[in-house]
Amino acid sequence: MKSYLDLIPISAKNHKKQGRMTLFCIILSVFLVTVIFGMAEMAIRSQQYQEIKTGGNWHVIFSDIDQETGALIQVRPEVACSSWYAYVKEASGFSIDGRAIGIAGIDGEAYASMFEHELVEGSFPKSYNEIVLSESAKSILKVKLGDMITIDGIGETFTISGFAAASANQMRYESFSVLLSMEAFRRHIPAEDYTEQLVVQLSTFCNMQKVIADITQTFHLNEKQVAQNGNLLMVLGQSNDNFVIQLYGCAVVLFFLVLIASVLMITSSLNSNVMQRTEFFGMLRCIGATKKQIMSIVRREGLRWCKFAIPGGLAGGVVVVWILCAVLKWISPEYFAEMPVFRVSGISIFCGIAVGLLTVLIAAQSPAKKAAGVSPLMAVSGNAYQIKSVRTTANTRFFKIDTSLGIHHAVSNHKNFILMIGSFAISIILFLAFSPAINFMNHAINAVEPYTPDVSVISKDNSLSVPKELAEQFGDQDFVKRVYGRMFAYDIPTEENRQINLISYEEHQFDWADENLIEGAVEDVFSTENAVLAVYNSDYSLHVGDKIILDANGVSQELNIVGVLSKSPFTNTPGTANIICTEDTFQQLWGESQYTILDLQFKRGTTDEDVNAIREMAGSEFTFSDRRQSNQQALGSYYSFALFVYGFLAVIALITVFNVINSISMSVSARMKQYGAMRAIGMSTRQLVKMVTAEAVTYSLVGSLAGCLIGLPIHKYLFEHMVTGRWGDPWNIPISILASIVSMVIITAIAAVGGPTKRIHNMSIIDTISAQ
Amino acid sequence: MNLLEVNSIYKTYGAGETAVNALKDVNFSVAKGEFIAVVGESGSGKSTLLNMIGALDTPTSGKVFIDGKETFTLEDEELTIFRRRNIGFIFQAFNLIPELNVEQNITFPLLLDYKKPDLAYLEEILTVLNLQERRYHLPRQLSGGQQQRVAIGRALITRPMLILADEPTGNLDTQNSNEVIALLKNASKRYEQTIIMITHNRSIASTADRVLQVSDGIITDFGRCGE
């Protein structure tokens, strides 16, 4: 040993158990921070990538500006890339093969920079007579790279130099657009048909809002001349939208809550650690250590634990984030294709290390002072510290001795009690604070419904023209999971001078509809003649038992309402009820057996070639709507956010469980000698368990109460800023969330008693008395 | 019948080269009401012997019979209850419960049985131990001698047949030591209890009815004092 501080590793070897508990607390804290920041970065990156992929990597568009102003903006140092851009809509009179098209023009360099992922085949047009088409045009026009096509309205023939990724809307509505170089656009499109805009990509290192404001002011632009890419700026943390700024504020609040949770957990552990070693510190003081030296020892001990705990916490956090990335890629491989699985988030590592070190240094202050304050007399008076710290008697009047001792153990040392309930309460507070994110997510991101198809084959004039045989052909394909069609009859007059839309469902659609049933029974449609379901409409209220009399092909027919649904996928028109029947009922009423629309859902792994095969089978007489891309986008957005929110709530729940178990274990370890003496006098194991359980329940009940009292206002604040302000949902006490986290804390506390008491039971009484 | 029978007790700690034989083939018996002093050098095995008798620790081999019951064949719960009701412990370090006052500490074994104390008997113990004015005080408010008296009271409250005292005067000054020994002897005679006490103090040992010496784990019965 070269200095007194070398005593630390030697002492640690003899107090491995206490050290392990503190180590565990630090690991948990670092793990928590690493996972949160790693998951947040993962979610933000995937959103960033998706925004750039779908909308392009541009930040602001300036319109109605002259060339000179544009040139001045372009040379600003904050402008990373820019281009003049123009667009004519589908209604502008340009078409290919009779299909109206939109045409856009942009510089090649800017296109490569801002729309990096768009070009999927070929190259950007280099000459005036080259064009890029949306990829959807391949199947619609049956064209390929190098083919020549004529654009009506321009009256010229162009060579297809490339294909760009089709947007979700283009896939869904079977449309496509054309891209020209800016020079070609100016040459071919009459100037009066368009206005050029300057699309700008700013440097990610600048304050974009400041730059945009500066440009607006310098060139005297008004609000209408400046359009920001709000979605992308939001995920870059550069938005000036009030709502988004509130979201950032909420994120800061949550960060500090996590920091407080970490400090509380570690302080509680270090405090308990010091309390158990008062004789040791007294002995050091006896020998001649100064108060400063004692404080150094405690602080150095904490930092020594960091040496092992921080890498452990970081490694655990990184692995969890990898697992979550892998899960996302498995759930939605197309959406998350570009997301790397084994990426290490620099910010999460930095924050994990910083929080680990900071929290240990902050948390060690109080126990260090306490240790330094231990009198040298402690070395000779054994458990005198514990005796001296008790100031009130246990109440044995209202409870039995074991219960009253347990409660007293919990509350007698005020500081320790506050630390313990604080660490219990913080888990509840964190859970409540993060749960508004679920409501936010459910509003902001639309998940895909179970009835959403991947592809639809639709009658072009909404008539009953899609043959049933086509459904059978589709169903025979291996990659098709499900085929379901609907027959529509619109605006049918009823005897009560009302109107209905009659829609047929098959069995899958009835199963899905069951979730929205508010009256009656879905299965009654199959068992009752002319039985139908009505969709709730405030203008045309129908209930079970009502009858609708209509004229179907000259025959008066009576429909019986056997069920009412709260909603359906179809639009509710005022005064017109949507009525759902079986295919047999529809056929019987209208004599028609063909569909208006056929929906298909595919199995995982279905390729574009498979989908093209379906398109070929459908032929060109129907509209082929490919919704896979929009479904993927919706699913991807939802899953990345859901995984972050639910994943984080799961992490909080896990940390709660570990913290409760660790706290109870530490509390038992601190009183080992006392428990040994009680056992020697005659306390049975059952009574010991009751005593420790009473202590654990006291911590968890009071901690839960404190957590609810503090957490509910925080939940309200965050809910009102994240949800009420945007969508108007009123705040309500989140009873189910509260019940689940509080019961988890209490159940875990009771269950946590088992381990330590079993340990004591397995030790001989003498070993318990002499335990340190 | 003897109250206590110790048959062939061995206690070995560790194994192999580092094995330590704390007790070797210990055999003796104690009649009811005897006051036994156990003497020996530090590390001789005195406390180990007391722990075996009180079933605080288990022997490597051997048997202990208290009032005809073989203690080490009892189930844990049964043994705990037996110890609570029939054996009183007095430790050198007092081992009082810090959050219970004097009265509660003394009646602790009864509280563990969920029984209410015999108030008259409790008063008697408090009087004998001179603790009436301290009955509601916490251990931190008592002197060492007073704390040890509380520990004695706790050992007496259930009227156990056997009291085991491990150096009860080890942390006390001479005056307090003499008072504590006198109290123990009085209680032993008054309540016909058997006391086995470890002591380093030869003058205290000389007041006992019998002296057992433990040396390197081997017990020697010196017989009655004065014989």
The strand count of chain A comes to 23
Helical percentage of chain B: 25-40%
Residue fraction in strands of chain A = 15-25%
**Biggest β-sheet strands, sense, barrel of chain A:** 10 strands, mixed
What is the CA-based Rg of chain A, rounded?
35 Å
Helical proportion of chain A, percent range: 40-55%
Shape of chain B: globular
CATH superfamily of chain B: P-loop containing nucleotide triphosphate hydrolases
Number of helices of chain B: 8
CATH topology of chain B: Rossmann fold
Which key phrases capture this entry?
heterodimer; A: 772 residues; alpha+beta; seven-stranded mixed beta sheet; B: 227 residues; Rossmann fold; four-stranded antiparallel beta sheet; 33% helix; globular
Summarize the structure in words.
The complex is a heterodimer of chains A (772) and B (227). With 772 residues, chain A is an alpha+beta fold. Chain A has 4 domains: 1-55 and 243-389, no CATH class; 57-228, no CATH class; 399-446 and 629-772, no CATH class; 455-628, no CATH class. Chain A contains 28 helices and 23 strands. In chain A, strand 15 (488-493) and strand 16 form a beta hairpin. Chain A is globular. The two termini of chain A are 24 Å apart. The model of chain A has no long low-confidence stretch (mean pLDDT 85). The longest helix of chain B is centred in the C-terminal third of the chain and has 18 residues, at 174-191. The mean pLDDT of chain B is 87. Chain B has helices at 46-53, 76-86, 102-106, 108-112, 119-128, 144-156, 174-191, 202-205, and strands spanning 4-13, 20-30, 35-39, 61-66, 69-70, 87-90, 162-166, 194-198, 210-215, 218-224. Chain B is an alpha/beta fold and 227 residues long. Chain B is built from 8 helices and 10 strands. Chain B has one domain: P-loop containing nucleotide triphosphate hydrolases (Rossmann fold, 3-Layer(aba) Sandwich). A 6-stranded mixed beta sheet of chain B has the order 6-7-8-3-9-10, with helices on both faces. In chain B, strands 2-1-4-5 form a 4-stranded antiparallel beta sheet, covered by helices on one side. Chains A and B meet through helix 14, helix 15, helix 24, helix 25 and helix 28 of A and helix 2 and helix 4 of B.
